[in-house]
Amino acid sequence: MLNITIKPLAHSDLVGIWQYTYHKWDSNQADTYLLELDSAIKGLAESPFIGKAIDEISPNMRLHPHNQHIIIYTVRDTAIDIVRILHKRMDITLHKIK
Description:
98 residues, YaeB-like fold
């Protein structure tokens, strides 16, 4: 299993996802959804090439859908870098990825 690095923009995305879910539903739902995202990220560390390559957006970049979000990440020799976690309806080409 590779190490996992959560990049600053992805961390901000997670905070925003938690806050949105908390305000829309409640803290239990927000916590549950973030635990599900965490589990999906750990799954990527075990099978890093399961995500679709999006080299046309950025070299070595991959994406993997999870529920309502898309996890955008890169794979290195010893780690995966979680770059962004965006809602599936967002156009990822319009958002800062690196």
